[in-house]
Write a structure and sequence with these properties.
Helix 9 packs antiparallel against helix 10. The strands form three sheets. Strands 1, 2, 8, 9, 10 and 11 form a six-stranded antiparallel beta sheet that branches. The protein has 290 residues and is α+β, with helices and mostly antiparallel strands. It has ten helices and 14 strands. The protein is elongated. 33% of the residues lie in helices and 29% in strands. The longest helix has 18 residues. The chain folds into two domains: 218 residues, Hsp33 domain (3-Layer(bab) Sandwich), CATH 3.55.30; 49 residues, CBS domain Like, CATH 3.90.1280.10.
């Protein structure tokens, strides 16, 4: 088994204004892949997005989630990755036909990158930039440059077994050496995809930054989790209105909803649908079978 499975490592460059993170997804990545038959050319940006959103969520001091969406008019129509402050992650992609490998423009066509922060007790924040670059990491670096937030760089790698990533971020405030950031990025640029996928965190940081004073914190576990529930599905169905639900049930006998993130099915019969509008709670039905 590769080292540091399903883990997030934070580290700091002592006496400089640079911080970093390393994340590895193993069982969490396999859980995402098990839900849909993704072709290799779709797995690559999906894995990059999952790793990236975890890296970004770990820098936010809030209770909630961060959602990364890539949308376009190309073979990959939509890609969504979501991570929470508890280091849980989920994601999916939708595509049409055969998807040839390529950069983001070839995969998504003319598209956009959307970052949404949904934090408890705060107004929802959303940032949107054109989807440009060879990879999700390059698109995110462009996002931070365009939004005038903290300069951030990403190095990402994806295989069938693991998705991994390294992020460096320049913190605000004075520094003794203005070249700290540039030096850290130049050193990180030497990382190879196989190192991200196979080398232990301590060995990798030692290889990249052996002349720097780096403080590595204890690893934190990450996991695949889907936030779907019968209650949330019921709330969405209620928004359709009773007439619409009655019409569906009259035609199909019941309403069956499948969560696209985890493939779990929910079934609502006529009694369930009526209870949504009467305040009478029916006994939970078992998930739909697949």
């Amino acid at each position: 088994m590769p080292p540091d499975t399903d883990s997030l490592h934070r580290f700091l460059f002592e006496r400089s204004r640079v911080r970093g993170e390393l994340v590895r997804l193993d069982a969490a990545w396999q859980a995402v892949l098990a839900r849909h038959p993704y072709p290799d050319s779709v797995k690559q940006p999906l894995g990059e997005a999952l790793v990236s959103v975890l890296l970004l969520t770990a820098t936010l001091k809030l209770e909630g989630s961060l959602i990364l969406q890539a949308q376009g008019e190309g073979p990959i129509r939509t890609l969504v990755a979501q991570a929470t402050h508890q280091h849980t992650v989920r994601g999916l992609a939708r595509w049409d036909g055969d998807v040839a490998p390529g950069d983001l423009q070839q995969l998504f066509g003319s598209g956009r990158l959307v970052l949404t922060i949904d934090a408890k007790g705060r107004e929802r924040y959303q940032g949107i930039v054109p989807l440009e670059g060879a990879s999700i990491g390059e698109a995110l670096a462009g996002y931070f440059a365009a939004s005038e937030q903290l300069p951030s760089r990403f190095w990402l790698a994806v295989s069938d077994q693991r998705a991994a990533g390294l992020m460096l971020q320049r913190l605000p405030g004075p520094t003794k050496d203005e070249d700290d950031w540039n030096r850290a990025v130049v050193l990180a640029d030497t990382v190879q995809p196989q190192e991200l996928l196979q080398q232990s965190t301590t060995d990798l940081l030692r290889r990249l930054f052996h002349e720097e004073d780096v403080r590595l914190f204890e690893p934190e576990p990450v996991a695949f989790r889907c936030g779907c529930s019968r209650t949330r599905i019921a709330t969405s169905l209620h928004a359709l209105g009773q007439d619409e639900l009655d019409a569906i049930i009259a035609e199909q006998g019941a309403i069956e909803v499948t969560c696209e993130f985890c493939n779990r099915g929910y079934r609502f019969d006529a009694v369930d649908a009526t209870s949504l509008f009467t305040g009478v709670v029916s006994s939970p039905a078992p998930p739909a079978q697949h």
